[in-house]
Amino acid sequence: MRSNLNFAFLFLLFLGVPYSGAVAASSFKMNEVTASYRDGDFEVVRSTLESALKKDLVKGIDARPLNREERVFAYKHLGVIYAANPQDEGRAKNMFIKALEISPRLEIMDLYPSDRI
User: Fold this and answer.
1) In Å, what is the CA distance from 92 to each residue of 12, 19, 25, 97?
2) CA angle 96, 71, 109 (to 5 degrees)
3) Each residue's pLDDT tens digit, 65-97
4) The domain containing residue 56 runs over which residues?
5) Around Cβ 4, how many Cβ atoms within 10 Å?
6) Which residue among 29, 62, 102, 106 is least packed, with the fewest CB closer than 10 Å?
7) Who's near 13: CB < 8 A, 6+ residues apart?
8) Number of domains in the chain
9) Which residues, including other chains, have CB under 8 Å from residue 52's CB and lie 6 or more apart?
10) Does residue 6 sit within a domain?
């Protein structure tokens, strides 16, 4: 039985049919975004996370959907980044609301936010 499954998998592989057990990569790596944030590369962080959230909303993108932890991470970081600019206060609030809807015990002190937040 096992050899029949192996043969079927190899046959599908050669036909070009994707293996359904494969998991696509996320749109971003949290450790890389964290490093960019700590280095003060806020524009890189902003564009990376905005892109990941946009891809998460679009069906058919190669990247897998963001999981709960990744969405909270993105909303939290974007909230702090947006809050640094008074013109983006509404966007910041929106990001924090989305993060709190997913994770009501959200803490942001690990991001060293300004007193303004």
Assistant:
1) 47, 40, 27, 9
2) 50
3) 888 899 999 999 999 899 989 999 999 999 989
4) 24-111
5) 8
6) 62
7) 19
8) 1
9) 26, 27, 28, 63, 66, 70, 74
10) no
Go through the chain and tell me how many residues it has: 117
Is residue 64 within 8 A of residue 23, CB to CB? The reply is yes
Place of tokens 């990001």: 95
Single-letter code of the amino acid located at 117:
I
This prediction's pTM: 0.69
CA distances from 17 to 3, 8, 9, 21, 40 (A): 19, 11, 9, 12, 43
The secondary structure element, H or E, covering residue 54 is helix 42-57
